[in-house]
Amino acid sequence: MRRHHSTTPRMARILGSLLLVAAAGAFTVAATPASKPAATPLDQVVPVPASVTPGGSPYRITHEARIRVPDTRAARQVGAYLADLLRPSTGYPLPVTTRGPADIQLRLQPGKFGAEGYRLDSGHGGVTITASAPAGLFHGVQTLRQLLPASVEKKSVQPGPWLVAGGTVQDTPRFAYRGAMLDVSRHFFTVDQVKRYIDELALYKFNELHLHLSDDQGWRIAIDSWPRLATYGGSTQVGGGTGGHYTKADYQEIVRYAASRYLEVVPEIDMPGHTNAALASYAELNCDGVAPSLYTGTEVGFSSLCVPKQITYDFVDDVIRELAALTPGRYLHIGGDEAHSTSHADYVAFMDKVQPIVAKYSKTVIGWHQLTGATPAKGALAQYWGLDDTSAEEKAQVAKAAQNGTGLILSPADRLYLDMKYTEDTPLGQDWAGLVEVRRSYDWDPGTYLAGVPGSAVRGVEAPLWTETITKSADIEYMAFPRVAGVAELGWSPAATHDWDAYKVRLAAQGPRWEARGMAYYRSPQVPWTD
Ligand code: NGO
């Protein structure tokens, strides 16, 4: 009874099911409800499921449990992932099988549940997750995971009991695009650090990982036709450390790992501004033919590719071709923000030339919302990073593009930028967009946020983490958690479920989970933590 002493009907429901179980003699653990843990109610999940029907006996995972999966490679992998999650803390063998009786079942049923939805049915005999695609099974597994005690996240055997409340969860996402961005340019993060963040995002049903691979301070991806980009342009970072870059094999390993967690990687090469690392690596990319020094500060807006020179487009073509070849995902992000040292006419001309290159390599353009000041290509998405007090003209420009068919990803900096400080005392981060406490980050509606934007233009939300002040995994976690869980809920849960008071209780229950995983997080006073 850790969390839910507040609502009487819920208590009655829990007690009801405990009594039922006790009467049936199903197991002894639940027979003394006052002192023993109850199963987490089905709606105490982040992001909150679209619909929940509690009822019936809980299921208890035991030593004998088996996991049955459909006989496809993807489904077997989701089964193996689930077993890997549960084995260390339960200590149970949990064999994954494609036939025979099993009390944990993953099922594929065409059509009904869409690309990412699922149904979870739990009762005395077991728990079944049904989906129409493996991504739905994977998201259902995340729900199952959160319905188990937080100690399931530990890496050593825990006492349990491993109860899953009885009933049905029917769930499907509100938005197709639910992203997080990591800036690996300002500070470089290793493949293992990126994987760690991927695992943390997967728990909240994110499906897009945007990697900001180049900026003034560092070029982080090997490009064979322009090798100095990585070897020289990647050799430093903010503050002057040694930086680093991903080899193509490293990058493919990130993409593979993300895919195994149902995240699509969106690579970004920021241009025409934010390009000092490239300009420093190749003198011929500069209008004056002189390479600037490498840059390790945090100013923005001073660098630009040379828009009139043909070599610029040869360079962009090579980079996009090689990056597209490494990218099974649909998107290629071309930046386009803060091109302050490029004239407006040059910016428009540049985007007119570069967007077709992305299309030529069969990718869809994403750009920061300044792209709407040029002519966004058909099908392009614009990523809005304005603030409440961004000018009406700029907002109207974005709305107009949306009316003309440009899809939007919403990343308002004064809500979703994970590098903004929570309070004045936050030791990391910046405050140019204001202070962003947990409630402010959560409490808005992407569907109605920008006036004049048709609902269908909003493809989803993304939480960027810029890393001028972020140097290690604990920093990533401290700035992302708890806010990124709220971004997940904004992206996944139906608008009708949006409620800070209910959310903060569910969020509080995530704290012990993060602790069990050894993650850092910010203990916001706005959240009623339970321990
Ligand atoms: C801005 C800027 C980035 C900074 C970030 C810091 C965008 C899209 N461009 O966001 O270069 O790192 O703010 O918060």
CATH class wording of the largest domain = Alpha Beta
* Cα separation of the termini: 13 Å
Structural class by sheet pairing and helices: alpha/beta
Question: What does the overall shape look like?
Answer: globular
Ligand kinds: ligand NGO
The percent of residues in helical segments reads 25-40%
Strand percentage: 15-25%
The CATH homologous superfamily of the largest domain is named Glycosidases
Rg, Cα atoms, Å? 24 Å
- Main sheet makeup: 8 strands, parallel, barrel
Query: How many structural domains?
Result: 2
**Low-confidence parts, pLDDT < 50 over ≥5 residues?**
1-35
Number of helices: 16
**Would you report the number of β strands?**
19
Provide the residue-averaged pLDDT: 94
Q: Could you describe the 3D structure shown?
A:
With 531 residues, the protein is α/β, with parallel strands linked by helices. The chain has two domains: 51-171, Chitobiase, domain 2; 177-496, Glycosidases (TIM Barrel, Alpha-Beta Barrel). Helices cover 32% and strands 16% of the residues. The chain contains 16 helices and 19 strands. It has helices at 8-24, 73-90, 134-147, 191-202, 228-231, 248-260, 276-281, 310-325, 344-360, 392-403, 413-416, 438-442, 473-480, 483-492, 500-508, 511-516, and strands at residues 51-54, 59-61, 67-68, 96-97, 104-108, 118-123, 126-131, 162-164, 167-171, 177-183, 208-212, 214-215, 218-219, 264-271, 331-335, 364-368, 381-384, 407-410, 458-465. The strands form four sheets. The protein has an eight-stranded parallel barrel, surrounded by seven helices. It has a seven-stranded mixed β-sheet with strand order 1-9-6-7-5-3-4, with helices on one face. Strand 3 (67-68), helix 2 and strand 4 form a beta-alpha-beta unit. Helix 4 (191-202) runs parallel beside helix 6 (248-260). The radius of gyration is 24 Å and the shape is globular. The protein starts with 7 loop residues before the first helix and ends in a 15-residue tail after the last helix. The model is unreliable at 1-35 (pLDDT under 50). Ligand NGO binds at residues 300, 337-338, 368, 385, 417, 419, 430, 466, 468.
